[in-house]
Amino acid sequence: MGVILGVIVLATLWAVFAYNGLIRASLQADEAWSTVAIQLKRRAALVPNLVETVAGYAAHERDTLAEVARARAGLQDAAEPAAVAAANTELVRALGRLMAVAEAYPDLKASGQFQSLQGGLADLEAKIAFARQFYNRAVLDLNSRVATLPSSIVATALRMKERPFFELDEGGETPRVAFPRPPARAA
């Protein structure tokens, strides 16, 4: 009788620890996703100013400007990590094309406002990359717990599923942000 009671107590303790570990990992993944979403929203808020600045110098580049606006809207409409990743890739590509357009306009590249926006974009891209890594680490921890014994037994009982990673598609590179070189000084 004492052995059976001991096994029941140990099984209950194990289930509680497994449950708490799964919940903790799930909450960490939620927090990490929130960090990604915040950084993506900050970048999305910067995009209209960047588009307006470029439009002031390159108004005839309407297709590129419209593409950036569409990609931004697509990112704002996406909710699930896979949809956000796809929309993010489109926005990154569109921003890359916008930066390529900016390369053709020396006055635009020299503009203080454009340089400030470029710097803000570069900073946000770095923060997004860090947040994405943080999220993917949290998801890896959660998915490992959901998929491996013995915690997978509790995960199945809780109907917990593995979560998708936030991955960039091929070509989903960070937009190239280049600052103009100061003019050479006459000696």
Characterization of the model:
It is a single-pass membrane protein. It comes from Phenylobacterium soli. This is LemA family protein. Keywords: Membrane, Transmembrane, Transmembrane helix. This protein has 6 helices and no strands. It is an all-alpha fold. α1 runs antiparallel to α2, α1 runs parallel beside α3 (81-103) and α2 runs antiparallel to α3. The longest helix has 56 residues, at 2-57. It is rod-shaped. The N and C termini lie far apart (96 Å). 26% of the residues are buried. The model is unreliable at 172-187 (pLDDT under 50).
Continuous helix count: 6
Which outline best applies? Answer: rod-shaped
Give the SSE order as H and E letters: HHHHHH
Average the pLDDT over all residues and give the rounded result: 86
Radius of gyration (Å): 24 Å
Strand content: under 5%
Number of spatially distinct domains: 1
Q: Give the CA-CA distance, first to last residue.
A: 96 Å
Low-confidence stretches: 172-187
* SS class: mainly alpha
Please describe the biggest sheet, giving its number of strands, its sense, and whether it closes into a barrel: none
The beta-strand count equals: 0
Report helical residue fraction.
over 70%
Subcellular location: Membrane
GO cellular component, one term: membrane
Membrane topology: Single-pass membrane protein
Keywords: Membrane, Transmembrane, Transmembrane helix
